[in-house]
Amino acid sequence: MSLAQIKGVLFDLDGTLADTAPDLVQALNLSLQDVGIAAQPLAAMRYAASHGSFALVDAAIPNAADDLRTQVQQGLLAHYQRINGDHCALFTGIAALLDWLELMQLPFGIVTNKPARFTRPLLRKLNLHLRMPVIISGDSTKHPKPHTAPMLLGAQQLNCAPEHILYLGDAERDLLAARAAGMLGGVALWGYLGVNDKPSQWPAHAHFASPTELHQALADAFA
């Protein structure tokens, strides 16, 4: 399928639509400090920000005992509830892309593994909640990505057949979910990829170095 056949776009949230790592790592560091462990630099923890709270904890304190690991993870979530969105911003080029999608009357939305209690307040802070007909969080269905359930729910709410949806993500599970759901998968190379990630081996139809490159590719396809 070519980009010209797209009738809707769905985004992963953390590391694809928005740069949420500053808030997530700050929440991690506050929790680490609560238990007397030194804070970690944002640059060193950034790659884990797409993979959930336990991934952040494991990146900061690998091989930690289970009770400490759980304590730091719970503290992270508590701190994040309070600071969610304080230092978050859309990636450069995303705002222009969303404006273009609206101009072209191509609906867009979110399918994320982030729990709804964090997703919706964040989208409100970013002034996106009223622009998106689809906001699927990690607990909107019984199974998160890479399961097809949230993807297919997103397609249903977008009122668009999966084969006409472009799904953008920065983690392998995003592309596995897109393929399983029959969507066109695009890799957001600007996201939180780690040194061990191999996006060239993910089941994607396209790779985009930046939101601006994605925007240009879509504009060219619809010209």
Give the SSE layout.
Blueprint: E1 8-11, E2 18-19, H1 21-34, H2 42-45, H3 53-60, H4 66-83, E3 89-90, H5 94-103, E4 108-111, H6 116-125, E5 134-136, H7 149-158, E6 165-169, H8 172-181, E7 184-188, E8 206-208, H9 211-222
Parallel strand pairs: 1-4, 1-6, 4-5, 6-7, 7-8
Antiparallel strand pairs: 2-3
What would you say about this model in short?
With 223 residues, the chain is of the alpha/beta class. Helix content is 43%, strand content 13%.
Give the amount of beta strand, in percent.
5-15%
Spatial strand arrangement across the major sheet: 5-4-1-6-7-8
Q: Total helix count?
A: 9
Mean pLDDT: 97
User: Level of helix content?
Assistant: 40-55%
Record field, number of beta strands: 8
| Span of the ends, CA to CA | 17 Å
Report the sheet with the most strands, covering strand number, pairing sense and barrel closure: 6 strands, parallel
Alpha-beta classification: alpha/beta
Radius of gyration over all CA atoms, rounded: 17 Å
Quaternary organisation of the protein chains: single chain
Order of helices and strands: EEHHHHEHEHEHEHEEH
| Bulk shape | globular
Low-pLDDT segments, ≥5 res: none
Keywords: Carbohydrate metabolism, Hydrolase, Magnesium, Metal-binding
GO molecular function, one term: phosphoglycolate phosphatase activity
InterPro entries: HAD-like_hydrolase_sf (IPR050155), HAD-like_sf (IPR036412), HAD-SF_hydro_IA (IPR006439), HAD_2 (IPR041492), HAD_sf (IPR023214), PGP-like_dom2 (IPR023198)
Protein name: HAD-IA family hydrolase
